[in-house]
Specification:
Layout (H helix, E strand, L loop, with lengths): L2 H24 L23 H17 L9 E5 L8 E4 L5 E2 L7 E2 L5 H12 L9 E6 L8 E6 L5 E4 L6 H7 L12 E7 L2 E7 L1 H5 L14 E4 L10 H11 L10 E2 L2
Parallel strand pairs: 6-10, 9-11
Antiparallel strand pairs: 1-2, 1-5, 3-4, 6-7, 8-9, 8-10
């Protein structure tokens, strides 16, 4: 090999070695283990732990029952008269819960829905106006209303909260939760329904509904809670006690704001 070729080869090798050293100096060392401060984020749609879901249900029900009706102090309410637009008004609900409809004495809104308030106004305006048609609309909420949901708990594939839809049935709720598990006892399904400031509890034999020996199910109401218990739950003659036991298994805390009504 000639001296020139040897010189060229040595120079090329030295240049390659220098480039390798420079690149190694710029690159950060490889991390073979995850850092301890990286938070583990649960996958979307993953089922919440039973205790966490029970706390969420309890908190939602307590908030719902603490504020019956559609009106809160400082809500902006519009009252409209289709045949007497000069009487149209917009006003805030007072701290006392009252509003001042035109031509009438102050009226209490606490505990009323917008439909109930509208019906009450129409009855009060009947002796006053020839055409007492009136509409009520909440333009601005001081306390935004809770988004309507239904909760499915217990022995289902994906327990959790689901957005409420008009016409939803217990079967649809069960399907949205991924269906019952093999350990589910469909003969002791507990349905909790908020009704006029109380929590009405009933036990439904869904197995009987499925085989056609029982009547059809009615539609669910917003904020209904469906609990599918496990087959290990002991059967008792006292349905109220059994319902409370099933609720306890699923971590729902019935506080002082909740009245359990057994039909």
């Amino acid at each position: 090999m000639s001296d020139d070729l040897c010189s060229f080869t040595g120079s090329a090798f030295a240049a390659a070695a220098l480039a390798t050293l420079l690149l190694a100096g710029c690159a950060s060392p490889t991390q073979y283990q995850p850092q301890s401060n990286i938070a583990l984020v649960p996958q979307p749609g993953a089922a919440a732990p039973r205790a966490a879901l029970g706390d969420q249900v309890s908190d939602t029900l307590n908030q719902l029952l603490e504020r019956p009706g559609d009106f809160s102090p400082n809500d902006l309410v519009r009252i409209r008269f289709p045949y007497m637009p000069l009487l149209d008004s917009e006003q805030r609900v007072l701290v006392s819960g009252e509003i001042s409809p035109p031509l009438l004495k102050p009226l209490q809104t606490r505990g009323l829905t917008a439909t109930e308030l509208q019906e009450r106004l129409q009855s009060l305006y009947r002796p006053v106006l020839e055409r007492p048609a009136v509409s009520v609309q909440v333009l601005e909420y001081a306390r935004p209303p809770l988004p309507p949901e239904i909760f499915v708990m217990g022995e289902v594939a994906r327990p959790g909260a689901f957005a409420y839809r008009d016409g939803s049935s217990l079967f649809e709720a069960l399907a949205r939760a991924g269906g019952a598990s093999r350990d589910a006892d469909l003969s002791q399904v507990v349905l909790l329904t908020p009704v006029k400031g109380q929590l009405q509890a009933e036990m439904i034999d869904l197995r009987a509904v499925l085989d056609g020996s029982s009547a059809q199910l009615r539609e669910l109401r917003p904020f209904s809670v469906i609990i599918i218990p496990a087959t290990q739950v002991a059967r008792m003659a006292d349905r109220a006690r059994q319902i409370r036991q099933i609720i306890g298994f699923n971590g729902i805390n019935l506080g002082s704001n909740v009245t359990l009504v057994s039909p």
